[in-house]
Amino acid sequence: MSDTSTSPRRPNIILINCDDLGYGDLGCYGSTCNDTPHLDRLAASGVRFTDFYAAAPVCSASRAALLTGCYSQRVGLADYQVLFPGQAQGLNPRECTIARQLKQVGYATKIIGKWHCGDQPEFLPTRHGFDEYFGIPFSNDMGRQVTHPDRAPLPLLRDETVAQQQPDQRGLTERYVDEALQFMRRPRTDPFFLYLAHMYVHVPLFVPRPFLDRSRNGAYGGAVACIDWAMGMIDAELRRLGLLDDTLVIFTSDNGSRARGEGGSNAPLRGTKAQTWEGGQRVPCIVRWPGRIAPETTCGGIASAIDLFATLAEITGAPLPEAPLDSLSLAPTLLAGSPTPRQSFAYYRGPNLEAVRLGDWKLHFCKFEWTPQGAATRELRELYNLREDAGETTNVIEDHCSVVAAIEAEAEAFRRRFGDRRLNRNGAEIREAGVCPAPRTLTAYDADYPYLVACYDLADMPTMAG
Ligand code: MG
């Protein structure tokens, strides 16, 4: 395997990011209740990461970090981890995204699906390096619901225009796939970058009937199957177009599963979405590039979605931005089997540093002893050896003082950079979020408008849920 930067042809890049898909939700990651033949095949023909981290345990922060190669704290989103419709804040247009980088070296760029880095005009994907956009700009539960009658209708955007309000979510993934295939088919001399950010498996889960009927895991299994089907469709099209060998595919998720009896799984990890236990942030990641990345490979080194920025820059020869990044290139890992360059990872929840991983070890800071009345009395730090105990079951802090000291030093380095509000620490390397002076929602409810779908409440619409 040779150095790709000397390759005469840059690969097409398809980056698939799921919403809330858990570590244990795919067959190739141990699921026994979801069927994912196409994704299992993807893993068999590329590299499957076992210790790959979403940058944050929730949506906006995770996606902003993936796109910029920076911890969300660095790009000013510590206090805006989940952006809401009409919110003033968003990813600062001055930040450089993967799309903007790839455009510099000639890529055609498109995002389909969930953006969630701000819905004001200056924050939209088309202002962040994407030539085109088709999708819902935030979470699929942020539209009108009986339980939330105050909300604006859910917008489906084409570039910067609302193409539809309250679209039928059952058919949306099929529309996303159709949009992806049409983009892939276009005659072009330059390569393309397609960022497909699935709506699934974020609740509410409205799933097409054929996937529901075949599911052994209810609507959740149907949604996972639909994600898998999308992979199958993309692969079939790559094959038909003769682009399979010229296309680098990355498949991952923005955070762990909610796992609240809805059918999702972070097994064998502890915790859920929005938590800094492994289950909140360790997610599936599969990368395939036929002929360049060895098939049937597993990588157990620490890696993060933050690292995709530098990885794709190295592979495509795109210049890195001048502003500091947190991204470490995985290109030598992917192409030559080198160890991953990342030695540590900071688990921030919003502005608070809750844990740090260094090598095989993870130290939690924000565990507290509680009184029966619910008041925190003292902090209980917990140390886990993730190589032996990925499920974080056995706190071994008493036995490893030197490990704790080493992680404390690493934590201090993160606090100096990004702060730690719990300790009243301000970070020295934090840039500003974008702020829109007069924010407004993209849509406004109109009682006379003939919405296709009036609301998205599963309980009120059993036929939608199936
Ligand atoms: Mg999510």
Fold and architecture overview:
The protein has 466 residues and is of the alpha/beta class. It folds into two domains: 12-342, 3-Layer(aba) Sandwich (Alkaline Phosphatase, subunit A); 347-430, Arylsulfatase, C-terminal domain (2-Layer Sandwich). 24% of the residues lie in helices and 18% in strands. The protein has eleven helices and 20 strands. The chain has helices spanning 37-44, 59-68, 98-104, 172-185, 209-214, 218-241, 278-281, 308-316, 331-336, 401-418, 462-465, and strands at residues 12-18, 47-49, 52-53, 89-90, 108-113, 132-135, 155-158, 161-165, 192-197, 247-253, 285-288, 297-299, 303-304, 344-349, 352-358, 361-364, 368-370, 376-379, 382-385, 434-435. A ten-stranded mixed beta sheet has the order 8-7-6-5-9-1-10-11-2-12, sandwiched between helices. Helix 4 (172-185) runs parallel beside helix 6 (218-241). The longest helix is centred in the middle third of the chain and has 24 residues, at 218-241. It starts with 11 loop residues before the first strand and ends with a helix. Residues 1-7 and 462-466 have low confidence and may be disordered. The chain binds magnesium ion (MG). Residues 19-20, 59, 202, 254-255 line the site of magnesium ion.
